[in-house]
Fold these 2 entries.
Entry 1:
Amino acid sequence: MGMNDVVSAERPHIAFFGLRNAGKSSVVNAVTGQKLSVVSAVKGTTTDPVQKAMELLPAGPVVVIDTPGIDDTGALGEERVQRARRVLDRTDIAILVVDSGAGMQNADRELLDTFRARKIAHLVVFNKCDLLSTLPAAGKEALYVSAIDGTNIGQLKERIAALACRDAPEKQLVADLLSPGDLVVLVVPIDDAAPKERLILPQQQTIRDILDAGAISVVTGVEELPHTLSSLRQKPRLVITDSQAFSVVSRAVPPDIQLTSFSILFARYKGSLRRAVQAAAVLSRLREGDSVLISEGCTHHRQCGDIGTIKLPNWIRQYAGCEPRFVFTSGREFPDDLTPYSLVLHCGGCMLSEREMHSRGHYAAMHSVPMTNYGIAIAQMHGILARSLEPFPDFLRELTQAQL
């Protein structure tokens, strides 16, 4: 996989923050070598976060985000500031740009405190150093630069690369569960919601991870699964299915073959599987009128029979024996305040970074609202949750202990 093939969710997200007169967008353009943001002498030229996936040497594939000034004024300005702060939910590396002539302001200090509280790797960049007669000592978390004449821009790129490489352990989607030569069967429904002539991102990434493990992948449809299994000379190590087909696939796969879903694999990959397993029990305790938030990380076109807006609500009604109130969000739309909800159901998050998934989980925990995911919820409602966790003994053990 080349650098340009790395999906945005897997790239470090580098966001630039600062006051409106700090020259933030000029620094962004100098670092990227592109006119990523419009630059003007007028304060507040950047009105919304600007985001672009790109290759930033020497860091490699990254997502760069330029944000509105954090001191914008008026009702519209306050909304822009709020959008800038929401960027923190998906920020892996924060760059605070300060006018070196004016120095740190209260808003800068507050933002710096927020970086530290949220454990976001960060760097303070004092811009416009070309206007200073001498450069003060910067410190390990700061650097003096000039977007105008390029002073220390190269060093800034090096510092960003160092932060991007720090504490970035190699993670695997499914490869750590496999041995070379293992056979994995992927069950991919082909229906109205399936994209024409291609596989969706979770399926592509899972196939690639299987190949990286030296294992063998076989892709089949739901209706073709029984014939596929009977045709194989080698017993599959694992069957991975789209969550919406869990029930049908579970009946077709013999009990001595492990079974899980793409959604569950991604929940583990993003670090939210434990929380999702613990929250699944809430599904049986829902009552008439309880509010359930169903959230997807992507913004695909809703189809007839859509899993998020049609199938999941129907399964929940049948399982809980009541009529909850359903609220739907997609893409970056996700409420800060989750107190109105009894439960949050989230997709696997393949289009969201690990930081953003953790942020959403943090909002749920902060408001004491259980948050589970599609695959876990569907497995729970179809009575196959324990089976779907067999590939993950630690999580299965926790589930078993909780049920005792």
Note: Residues 307-320 form the longest helix (14 residues).
Entry 2:
Amino acid sequence: MRVYNFSAGPSMLPMEVLEEAQRDFLDYNGTGMSVVEMSHRSKPFQAIVDEAEALLRELMNIPEDYDVLFVQGGASTQFEAVPLNLLKNGKADYIVTGNFANKAYKEAQKYGDIACAASSKEDNYTYIPNVDEIKFRDGIDYVHITTNNTIFGTRYTKFPKTDAPLVADMSSNILSEPVDVSKFGLIYAGAQKNVAPAGVTIVIVKKELTNQAMAICPTMLKYATQAPEHSLYNTPPCFCIYMAMLTFRYLKKIGGLAAMKEINERKANMLYDYIDNSGFYTNPVRKEDRSMMNVPFVTPSKELDEKFVKEAAANGLVSLKGHRLVGGMRASIYNAMPEEGIVALIDFMKKFAKENA
């Protein structure tokens, strides 16, 4: 029996994508072998990589002067790859709005003069700092932001303006809505929220930034290594790239990112509206900064939170326990979470509130 999986990642994938992968698993496109068996140097796999890149470029309207890479190591590896590749003058500013933003900031400090330009830590990351009021230092190589904060349930609705390249970790909201790629020098995202199984990381980087890596940058982390080889310098995460390709096909089929945004807004508004008017559940995030992807909430007590998670799972609503840094519950409602899943969650929340008020 399929459940509604509210996990923060790895997360749900569209049923249509899973079923297509199931059909292809033993024999991909008449090759007589699975994608997980074929050579990454073969023509069939080259076609997969080419289609994946072409579809992503189309979906995100990526300009021609950007490279698109499919690499390994997760977004956490990019916490170091970014400074190693971009610290030309040795200075960068970070906006720290959550756990992963803070991790990226700390990793970068190994390699240069890294400053925290703004933070919402003092209020437990329940808001995004006003980007119009942030002062960045002169002579910096880039500004780093995390566009959606998975644990704390916040997101940027406006991006900072800076003369330096803007770098964004979009791991938990990539492809959830249209974004102007030209505003960024580099975008990176782990795939396991909205794209594919864990294992592949998307890097979208302006070509002019790919050839200034520090001398100590490992070969495998250099964008200048991966870009000319079109992500095939070494054996890539083949199955994950194939799954990403299927997801990109699906997104194009339903109308692209504009259509996906409408669906996501509808889902998120439905859940937030119920929480705000329930008189039983609360969400701590400033309303204008609330994430469309991750919705944290609590009941009146920790004991009821624990009871909620247990009973929800028994009703086919799984992975709702909040992160240890926040507690309570968290509903991660990424692209593949159907609206029916939100309705089922709200129905259960109503029942639980009535029984435990």
Note: The chain has nine helices and 13 strands.
